[in-house]
Amino acid sequence: MKKQFLALIALLLPMAVMAQEEKDTTSVIPENENTLRIAAQLSKYGYANNDALSLIQAARLSKKAGFTIEERAKYEVEEMRPAPEPGKKGGQVSLDPAKLLADAKEKAGDDGVLLALIDDVNSNVRGAVGGPKYNYSHVNAGGSDMYAIDFRGGELAIVTVIGDGDTDLDLYVYDNNGNLIARDVDYTDDCVATFTPRWTGTFYVKIVNRGLVYNNYVIRTN
Fold this sequence. Notes:
Distance between the termini: 37 Å
Helix content: 25-40%
Largest sheet: 5 strands, mixed
Number of strands: 9
Strand order of the largest sheet: 1-2-9-4-7
Low-confidence stretches: 2-26
Shape: globular
Mean pLDDT: 78
């Protein structure tokens, strides 16, 4: 338990700033958004290290932030997920509290402390009504995904993509005239782009996988 706790604390310490080409920082990211990004990182750590405590904490944060799933269809035809590829670590990421707690319970075995924590999150943590909506998908090695999403003019728009940690993902947002209006092209798969549309309409969100294996990810749009 002590090792799990120390690992959890270490994960939440500030991460070293990586060199990057460009990252959109023109708008302040809402607290809920940052909370969910921390939850995603905890879930990735928990799955990679078979750590039930990290999954429980990810579920707690996700529920508090009001996570719900909303299916979004890709604008382009989705390719079949390939068979496991050389170099693929089997990375996994989730923000679904029910899945996180179910997986945590499986990993907890007969550990009474962990099982009690799972019951506590299930019973006592309630998410915000009408909270942010997410979708799960994957993007193939060297490929890209595109989503057509409507945003309201004059209101802050936020697009967040969080991958499984195996490859670099880049995020681009285009208006309906094909103009690039926001992007996040750093060297991670934790992407966020913010912009304020001048008009209400359809915008196109493109996710590009720069790696040699597929990447499982979650996408959120407000």
